[in-house]
Each structure stands twice: as C-alpha cells, then as structure tokens.
Amino acid sequence: GAGVSQSPRYKVAKRGQDVALRCDPISGHVSLFWYQQALGQGPEFLTYFQNEAQLDKSGLPSDRFFAERPEGSVSTLKIQRTQQEDSAVYLCASSLERTLFFGEGSRLTVL
Amino acid sequence: GDSVTQMEGPVTLSEEAFLTINCTYTATGYPSLFWYVQYPGEGLQLLLKATKADDKGSNKGFEATYRKETTSFHLEKGSVQVSDSAVYFCALTGNQFYFGTGTSLTVIP
Q1: Contacts of B34 in chain A (CB under 8 A)
Q2: What is the pLDDT tens value at each position of chain A, 111 positions in all?
Q3: Partner of A51 for a Cys bridge, out of A21, A39, A72, A108, CB 3.0 to 4.6 A?
Q4: Can you list the positions of beta strands (E) in chain A?
Q5: How far is A6 from A4, CA to CA, in rounded Å?
Q6: Helix (H, G, I), strand (E, B) or coil at B86
Q7: With b meaning 16 or more CB within 10 Å and e meaning fewer, what string describes B13-29?
Q8: Nearest CB to A99: which of B46, B100, B102?
Q9: Dihedral over alpha carbons B80, B4, A31, A82 (to 10 degrees)
C-alpha cells in the first residue's frame, strides 16, 4: 500500500482481556518497528523486525507483550491480560534508508 | 547511550512569528537526525532530515542544520501559520531510533 496501515485505530478493552494490534507496512520495507506512545510523551521503542526475524525486543515492557511477523510483511502486536498501564497509542513504522514511516497508530484504552 | 533532548513546551506563537525549537543530541558514531511532526489524532510524519554534519534539511518552510560541533539540530521557521500547530519530535538514528519527548506548538491567529 501507499503508507503504513494499522488496525484497529481505536480499541477499548476490559482489564484482563487480550488484544491484538495489526500493522501492514509499506510494500518492500524490510524493517518494521513497534513503539508505545503515552499521552504527552514521545514514542518509546518496543521491538524491531528485519523481515520475519525479531532482532530486538528489549523494549517490550513485560512478558505479556508479544510481537510477530511470520511472513516478513504484516506484523501483529499482542498484549495478554491487559492492564490499565497498557493504555497508550501503539505506533508501527516501517523503514527505508534509515528513515521511519509511521502509521496512524492504534489507541488502546484499558478500563 | 544515544539520546535526544529537546526544548520543553508548550510553545504559543502568533501567526507569522519566528519559530525555533531547540534539539541537542548525544550519540556515538555518525547518526542521522530527523524532525517529525504529529498532528492531533494522527501518527508521526517525517518533516525533514539530515544525514551528515553541516547538512541542512528543509520542508514546508521549516529548516534544521546538523551541527556536529554543538551537537544540535534546531528546528526553525521564519513565519508560522495556524496550520503548523502540532507536536514536533526531534529524533536520531544510532543503533536504534531515539525520540525526544516532543514540543507542542500552538499558533494563534
């Protein structure tokens, strides 16, 4: 596609529910990143893929967070047993020539 | 480690005023430097970038020069418009991408 596409744009979950957030990167972009953006803050790195390989997951805040990119294209960020502190915007970006191109984000609200 | 520090906001300017948003960085090696802009309810959009010392990035009237000697990449615009109201993020690529905390700009007519 023309840009990075994320879905859903908005997700409301009850505490304890599992959620899955999808990212469809720009076609041909090898690198894919997930970031978490709390209200009024800058993006915080979560994890990074090159093709299907997850090369860095040092930013994932707990073992409740899991990301995959099985075919080197679409990626899914899964959060298990959501907590209120998981409420944030989750941004996906794909990269070309050391430049990030972001999707519009998925806003997660945990009640 | 690598990091970016940018001036805190919020910043409020009248239309046609001059804008400067300061950004300094700490990095090993030779990072690329970026300014991203985020409009309400949207993701981050690349505004401009510079890949080596003394490079000037420019777009939509905004400019920033990569200054190695002062480790800075300040964003400037000569005459802001109401439509420039947004949050601006300075960023660098080292081993990863690092972002500042953002500076909120509001331009009033």
Answers
A1: 99-100
A2: 579 999 999 999 999 999 999 999 999 899 999 999 998 888 999 999 999 999 999 999 999 999 999 999 999 999 999 999 999 999 999 998 888 999 999 999 999
A3: A72
A4: 5-7, 10-13, 19-24, 31-37, 44-50, 53-56, 65-68, 75-79, 88-96, 99-102, 106-110
A5: 7
A6: strand
A7: beeeeebebbbbbebee
A8: B46
A9: -100
- The four Cα atoms B78, B83, B89, B94 give a dihedral, to 10 degrees, of -80
Q: Would the CB atoms of B101 and A42 count as touching at under 8 Å?
A: yes
Looking at this protein, which amino acid is placed at residue A56?
D
Average pLDDT over chain B, rounded to an integer: 94
Banded pLDDT at B7 (limits 50, 70, 90): confident
Say how many C-beta atoms besides its own lie within 10 A of residue A44's C-beta: 16
SS3 A18: coil
Q: How far is CA A41 from the centre of its chain?
A: 16
Residue type, A30: V
Whole-number Å distance between alpha carbons of A109 and B80: 34
Q: Which helix (H) or strand (E) holds B73?
A: none
Q: Is A25 on the interface with B (CB under 8 A)?
A: no
B100 min Cα distance to partner chain A (Å): 6
